[in-house]
Amino acid sequence: CIQGGHAVFITGSGISGAIAKMLAFRLKQLGVEVEAYHIPEGVARSYRPGDVLFAISSSGTTKMTLTQVEQARGVEGVTIISIVSEPLSKIAQLSDIIIVLPRKPIKNADFFLLNTFFEIAATIIVNELILPIKQKLGVTEEQMGKEHQFY
What we know:
Elements: E1 8-12, H1 15-29, E2 34-36, E3 52-57, H2 63-73, E4 79-84, H3 90-94, E5 97-100, H4 116-137, H5 141-148
Parallel strand pairs: 1-2, 1-3, 3-4, 4-5
Helix pairs in contact: 1-4, 1-5
């Protein structure tokens, strides 16, 4: 559902927003049109059946991200893929596909600042999500590199 005239939306806030921007960048390198990587709060998107929304939020409750997920959930046929650390969060509950990553690798791990482990893991997962899309579209790394200069 990444191809075929359907829109791909990507949302996140704060550092999750930076990871969302990276996902948008990688998809653009593959030639996939991305409608928005950061959708400002209060801006309603025109979701249509077949569209895909990627939502990244460690807490799974970030207001701006949750608003976009709720809007997308209101349109039948929109696929919502979320990356969260809280599997019971509102964003996770509204998603079709949920990728759950821990905030810290072990309880009370003081060697990771705030949600650093989630952020590192989400960055790796985003790149892993790109690989099968790259293979399906038949795009080489050389082609991706050429697109790099335009973003």
